[in-house]
């Protein structure tokens, strides 16, 4: 199995996991939000952990969707220069952008893991949920590692000067 075919296999496998996470976490956020609003405004009660849980699942779902946006090249980017540059120059610009994004993701993951280590050392927990803070803070470096993995896959499979899903689009 070549490196490119292994990257394509990993790409497809990650896509399924990302789709599942986005759906499950979005539905969980919807359920938590509806439950809290119903309890608060209909029954004048509620759970104090609900707000924190709602925020956590929403943020995790949106970060997962961001990872998915990297796969589909639908993240925010400046496209004007590559679109007017000659194809070889545009390809170099796109590879440079992916390398810069990869570097940033790796840096943020590393900084995040340093902070998670600090939070573990402090051994604090959320008063609303009782969940250890380091577990909650682990979401960010984990997602940054997934972003980095997506950029690595893009580099292995090949960064086109103009992504295929945008070709023919107006």
UniProtKB/TrEMBL annotation:
Residue spans crossing the bilayer: 21-43, 49-70, 91-115, 135-153
Entries under InterPro entries matching the protein: DctQ, TRAP_DctQ
Domain named Tripartite ATP-independent periplasmic transporters DctQ component: residues: 31-156
Subcellular location: Cell inner membrane
Short name of one Pfam family: DctQ
Similarity section: Belongs to the TRAP transporter small permease family.
PANTHER family on file: 2,3-DIKETO-L-GULONATE TRAP TRANSPORTER SMALL PERMEASE PROTEIN YIAM (PTHR35011:SF2)
Protein name, as recorded: TRAP transporter small permease protein
